[in-house]
Specification:
The protein is built from 2 helices and 9 strands; from the N terminus they run E-E-E-H-E-E-E-E-H-E-E. The chain is mainly beta and 118 residues long. Strands 1, 2, 3, 4, 5, 6 and 7 form a 7-stranded mixed sheet that branches. A two-stranded antiparallel sheet has the order 8-9. The protein is globular, with a radius of gyration of 14 Å. The N and C termini lie far apart (28 Å).
């Protein structure tokens, strides 16, 4: 399928500050991730620590917290992993579903989709 990036803006928990990141769209990742220093600067507080399996099979633990994010003019509260500063930010499946976005693998972009209620 190939990989592509998409901008995501994270909003400060209080005040007008925000940060727009160029994040890799990763449908294999459960949650979105952003550098811990960025989340801390925006006032996002860790709520818990979770175990994460990496692509190489290893398991790591990282903090997660809730942050308001904006993509394509829409705002939603998402769960975000506090990642090391040198790790590429990711947009994971949980965020894609929250924003009702799907991957167009040919055009390598995000497209609106419908929610499922079965």
């Amino acid at each position: 399928m190939g990989t592509f990036t998409h901008p995501i803006t994270l909003l400060a928990s209080t005040g007008p500050d925000s940060e727009t990141l160029t994040a890799l769209v990763d449908t294999g990742a459960t949650f979105t991730s952003a550098p811990a220093p960025t989340l801390e600067r925006l006032g996002v507080t860790p709520q818990s620590q979770i175990r994460l399996r990496l692509a190489d099979g290893s398991v790591v633990e990282h903090d997660i917290g809730e942050v308001v994010a904006e993509m394509d003019g829409v705002r939603r509260t998402i769960i975000c992993i506090f990642s090391p500063e040198d790790v590429q930010p990711l947009i994971g499946a949980h965020t894609l579903e929250a924003f009702l976005l799907a991957v167009d693998p040919v055009a390598q972009k995000l497209v609106p989709t419908e929610a499922l209620w079965l």
